[in-house]
Amino acid sequence: MTLNMGPQHPSTHGVLRVVLELDGETIVRAKPIIGYLHTGMEKQAEYKTYTQSIPQTDRMDYLSPMSNNLALCLAAEKLLGIEAPARAQAIRVLLTELTRISAHCVWLGTHALDIGAMTVFFYCFREREKVLSIYDQVCGARMTASYFRVGGLSSDIPAGLLDRCQTFVDEMPAHADEYERLLSKNPIWLARTQGVAPLSAKDAVALGATGPVLRGSGVGWDLRKNAPYCNYQEYEFDVPTGANGDAYDRYMVRVREIRQSTRIAHQAIAKIRAMGERGEYRLRDYKYVVPPKEDVKTSMEALIHHFKIVAHGFFPPVGEAYHAIEAPKGELGFYFVSDGTPRPWRMKVRSPSFVNLQTLPTMIEGRLVADVITAIGSLDIVLGEIDR
Questions:
Q1: Which of the residues 54, 114, 219, 371 could staple to 367 if both were Cys, CB 3.0 to 4.6 A apart?
Q2: Domain range for residue 64?
Q3: What is the pTM of this model?
Q4: Closest Cα to residue 388, out of 38, 111, 144, 121?
C-alpha cells in the first residue's frame, strides 16, 4: 500500500510530503518530496546587494534568524577580506547562542507534542518568549530578527540588554532540569525514542549529516571547535555526543547543547562587560561599511559614504568565498561568487535541514509508521531552509 504523509500534516514540521510504501504497518520504502515552499532566495540574491539579502535569510530557518544573518555576513566578510571588531564578535556569539537555546526549545516542545507530551511544549515556549523579547529590544523584531551587518552590527546593544541576558542565562539551567525531569526517565518517552530511528556514525557521515543529528550518532564534529569563527576558540564548552544514534540520543544531545550554550553566553556577557558599556560595534572601513548615524549627521564625507553604500552597495573584489557556521541544526554555509559588482554573481546556501533530511529513509525503512513521526521530529527540520 502506498501512503502519502503530508504535505499538510501537523507532524511533518512544514510542507513536507513523504511517500511511504507499506507492508501492513512496516515501511518498505520512504521517499521525502520537497519543493512546496520554494521561494528562490538564491536566485533573488543575484538582483540584490549583499546587505539587501540579509533580511531574506531570516525567512530560511525562521526559528534561528540570527544564525542565518551571521553565516551570510561572515561569508561576505571573507570575500571582502575584513573582520568585525572584537566587541561585535562577542555580541554575535551571545545572540547566536541565545538563538541556539531558543531553536532547541522550539524543537523540544514540538517534538514532545508530536509524541504525545503536552506540558513540555508550554514550558519550552515560555523560555523561547524570553529570547524573542531580547531580539525585540536589540533590533525591534521578534521572529524575523535582522541585526547583524557585514562588518559588524546595525547598532550597538541598548542599555540594560546585558542584564536581561544575564538573568535569562542564570535561570536557564533550572529550566533544562525541568525538561529532563518530565522526559528523560519517562517510560512512555523512552519507549517512543530509545532504539527508534537509528542512524549509525558511518551512515551519518556518508549522508553528509551535521549538527545534533551527526553528534547523536557519536561523531564529535562541531564547527565552533573544528573550524572556529567569531573567536570561539577563546570560549570554554564541551561538544555533547550520543552513543546509539537513535531519537533518544539526538534528544539528549540537544538538551546538553542548551546547557553548553548557556555556558558560552555567560562567558560572552563577561567579555562584553569587560570591554565597557560602549565600544566599536562596527568596522570603520567606509568603503564597505555604513558609517555610524552620529557621524552621518556631522560629516559630509560620512554622508557620501552612507549614500554610496545604501544606494549602490559595496564593491567586493572578483573571487569566491565560502563560510560555514555551526547553526542549531548543523552546518549552515554561504557560498558567494563575486564578479566585482555590488551584487553577487552567484549565491549558494548549504542548509543543514536539506542535507539532514536525506537521512530519513535510512532511519525508517523496515520500521513502523508511528516511528516516522519520531524520526522526522528528531531531525529538527524547517522547510523554509530546505526549499529556500
A1: 371
A2: 2-387
A3: 0.94
A4: 38
